Amino acid sequence: MSRDRTLFSVGAPHNHGACGRLHLIGSLALVVSTFLFTRSVDHLYVIPVSTSSSSPVAYGVDEASRFSDRASALSCPNGGDGNLLSLKIYVYEEGEVDGLRELMHGRDGKISVNSCVKGQWGTQVKIHRLLLKSKFRTMKKEEADLFFVPSYVKCVRMLGGLNDKEINAAFIKVLRQMPYFRLSGGRDHVFVFPSGAGAYLFRSWEAFLNRSIILTPEGDRTDKRPVSSFHTWKDIIIPGNVDDGMTAFYGSTVVQPIPLSKRKYLANFLGRAQGKVGRLQLVELARQYPDKLESPELQLTGPNKLARVDYFNHLRNAKFCLSPRGESSWTLRFFESFFVECVPVILSDQIELPFQNVIDYTLISIKWPSTRIGPQLLEYLESIPDEVIENMISHGREVKCLWVYAPDTEPCSSMLGILLELQKKVRRFQQSAETFWLHNRSIVNRDLIEFHSWRTPLPLP
After folding, report:
1. What's the domain range around 153?
2. Whole-angstrom distance, CA of residue 55 vs CA of residue 58
């Protein structure tokens, strides 16, 4: 094994240029004094919240003016368009490891990549594709900081390519073929699980991936599971996969936002009730207040299926987009709302949001208790002045580029943000409880066999 490096490493020089829109992503490099200062003075802008169920929270003139004077939603101290990145990622080839192709194309190899790039699980494909073309990709395992394991299991499972038992067996088979996974106990290996089920798609995740880095939009499933597969110390929350037709920054999008004054509704909820309490309450609330809250019954199949253009036309026609939890705590609607410039209202108490170390979500969204869904919510939203809403929308424009899965060569993208977060997970020392080292820096296993002589299949950590 050869991973010789200097004992101490010095990062790339910082770029102290202006922090324009195209340099917003540089702030994702580290939590800095600008952000800390912003947080320390937050109390100056606290808007009093009534605890009385009969009295809605309301904005006054002073609160509105103070809100509009607040700092940028995204702290950007050192400029940067990836200049702070110093990272090498090895991406496993699908034919390199026995079993990996099954996780990407199913047992018969018939699941196409293009069929998996759309929908909420599309980030499994997009992140893989972007890493294959990334300037941070290395072809040498011995120099890699991190290892990316591609799999499209959510899509493969949904399309009948593998069942749960087969997915579990395929993952274990793949991991046993990876000496570097054994070397670190999985600490430097990265997996994407983009759906509400998260890492639970791999039934034995707790035994094998409890040290690995998991990329997921899903930060909590403890409502249905005894243990959450998301851990803040190692895992990364990623943005959901917004329709590409809405994220075209350098071309026309499927629909354009409309002026606030021309929007028909105060708020909307576009989604299926799915028997969930919060969603059912919103549907009922829309029946009671049809002039304020739109919540049409969505047809996702059949002749009355709502086309994507129709969906976004509905979404853009309200000042506030209500985002309740569904099967899990995250919702794609939160991310979609930024592209129609509708202020998202989070009605999901356990939600985790991406890049929280640099984004001030109080400037671009509202989080309302899911236990208080009712007329009080509409009264509160109705009390917010349009100038305050416009300011929230303006701040939202600053950060929405972080929801776009574009190449890391772009100055602002989900991918660049994820890479900067991944860099924070790199450890100088990655060995597991089953690896040992000798006086000459050689790495050996419990039988004192040197790493370069290890043979697969390997026992797993």
Report:
1. 89-241+420-453
2. 9
Instruction: Give a yes or no: residue 74 inside a domain.
Output: no
CA distances from 242 to 126, 204, 276, 419 (A): 12, 30, 23, 19
Statement to judge: residues 97 and 232 lie in one domain = yes
Q: What is each CA distance from 326 to 52, 253, 305, 318, 378, in whole angstroms? A: 27, 27, 20, 21, 21
Q: Residue type for 291, please?
A: D
Residue with tokens 């509202």: 366
Give residue-wise pLDDT tens across range 72-130: 887 754 434 456 788 999 999 999 999 999 999 999 999 999 999 988 889 999 999 99
The verdict on 446 and 363 lying in the same domain is no
DSSP 385: -
189/282 same-domain check:
no
396 and 252, same domain (yes or no): yes
HSE-CB at 325 with a 13 A cutoff on CA atoms is 23
385 and 438 together in one domain: no
Quote the tokens at residue 272: 């299926």
Torsion from C-alpha of 82, 417, 236, 428, nearest 10 degrees: 0
Query: Where is average pLDDT lowest: 8-22, 184-198, 289-303, 361-375?
Result: 8-22
pLDDT mean over 395-423:
93
> What's the average model confidence in pLDDT over 50-73?
49
